Amino acid sequence: MSISIQTNVNSLIAQENLRVNSNFQSTTIQRLTSGYRINQSGDDAAGLAVANQYRSDTAELTQGVRNANDGISTLQIIDGGLNNISKVLDRMKTLATQSASSTFTGDRTVLQGEFKSLQTELDRQANNINMNSGGASLANLSVYIGGGVGAQSNSTVQLDLGSKGAVDSASLGVGAGITVNGATSAVTANATSTGAADLSLDNGKTLMASTQNIFVTTQSGTKQVTISGGADGLTQQQLVDQVNGGLAGTGVTASINSATHKIGFASADGFTVDTTAATNASTGIGTADTFQNGFNHVESTGTVTGATAAQTISFTLTGTSTAINVAINSGDSVDVQESKLREGLQNSGIQVMRDTNTNTFSFQSKVAFNVAETAGTTADSLGLVGGAAATAAGGTYTGVAGAATDNGSAALLAISSAVAKLGQVQGQVGASQNTLQYAVSLAESQISNFSSAESRIRDADVAAEAANLTKAQVLQQASMAAMAQANSAPQAVMALLRG
């Protein structure tokens, strides 16, 4: 091996190793002091990309858990309100039970006073938790939690709070029409189905393995009641109870006419009844039929559509000379026409009923009246062009002898139906809470696993790095000692020169 003064190869080798060992020591110290194996992209570019994705997923899930817990809190608030409403219904049922008993000798007006205040309080609580008709809580809620694989829909929990309906008094069927203040007042509106089967007490059962729909329209709208006979059919009382349960809150009640043994309907206000034929042609409330109550009434002769021409509808009560005119403009929808008719007739004593099942109108009053409609078009008029006199009020209606007709008994039926409906809503809220709890459990499990996976890639192994630091320090010291020896090697040339 030649000896060179110009190029000290051993020194260069020692310098290079010293640089490598110094960098090794620096990297080891950085990992130990930061706790991370990857402190910059160059440490592990591919691993960094994977670790960053895990960290991003963890951040998403962490906020998702907060979202779900916020949702659970909201549902708990609603659930608490529903529990209170359940207690209100319990008290209402207590009052109705007290009123329904013939042994009660107190003042039923006192019971009615508390009953009415409970109806008001029920509505207040329903509004408070936004579970009233049209309330914000009656919606399909979407809670984003994260962690979904393949599609974002897997990251979202859908909650249905609207399908079971509102829980205010009207929606539960225990609104203003339900009272406990004694016997039902004498009815002035009544109707008996002309095509009903004989439902006398000794005439067996009806609607065996069949169903039938009844549409009852009052000023508040149209309500559909579906009665089902099941495999065994219905007795007379079962039929009436099922119909009255469905009519709760409408002010209309059903019973069996004691003379004809046919089902009849009664109310202190106007109404119309629309029936469909029973399935399998079984006996029931008769075939498809439309029948009116005992008020003076006029019906539109066909389906009403949006107005395509301007027209005026005039109402004149018997004994008066001044007509009440309602102007319909071209382009008015059926909804607008209904609103105008209600507004124009609100103080006249003429009630406006719109059957949304058939989209027809019925005008009813205790006083006789006439209706005249100016020419519009055949398609959109009420079918009363040229005028029509109200059909006179019908005869009286008699319920089944001995049947309970007091308001307390009717209220009991309505409240029982309300309790069942409220239970469905509570079940829906409870199921939604459980769904979110399950989602939180999954998200927290994913947070733990994603964090663990990121840790294995990003975090430093302290034990290994501590060993590496010792190794780096020894190598650095050895490199410096070797470099000192390499730097002194050229001095051996002086020995040759001195010779």
Question: How would you describe the overall organization of this protein?
Answer:
With 499 residues, the chain is of the alpha+beta class. The protein has three domains: 48-180 and 407-451, f41 fragment of flagellin, N-terminal domain (Up-down Bundle); 189-296, Immunoglobulin-like (Sandwich); 298-389, Immunoglobulin-like (Sandwich), CATH 2.60.40.4390. 43% of the residues lie in helices and 16% in strands. The strands form five sheets. Strands 5-4-8-9 form a four-stranded antiparallel sheet, covered by helices on one side. α1 runs antiparallel to α8 (462-488) and α5 (236-246) crosses α7. The longest helix is centred in the N-terminal third of the chain and has 56 residues, at 45-100. It is elongated, with a radius of gyration of 42 Å.
The topology string of helices and strands comes to HHHEEHEEEHEEEEEEEHEEEEHHH
Query: What number is the mean pLDDT?
Result: 79
The helix/strand class is alpha+beta
The radius of gyration is 42 Å
CATH class (first level) name of the largest domain: Mainly Alpha
Share of helical residues: 40-55%
What is the level-2 CATH architecture name of the largest domain? Up-down Bundle
What is the overall shape? elongated
Number of strands: 16
Distance between the termini: 20 Å
Q: Output the CATH homologous superfamily of the largest domain.
A: f41 fragment of flagellin, N-terminal domain
User: Could you name the ranges where pLDDT drops below 50 across 5 or more consecutive residues?
Assistant: 184-189, 193-203, 393-405
DSSP summary: helix tally = 9
CATH topology of the largest domain, by name, is: f41 fragment of flagellin, N-terminal domain
Q: Name the strands of the widest sheet in spatial order.
A: 5-4-8-9
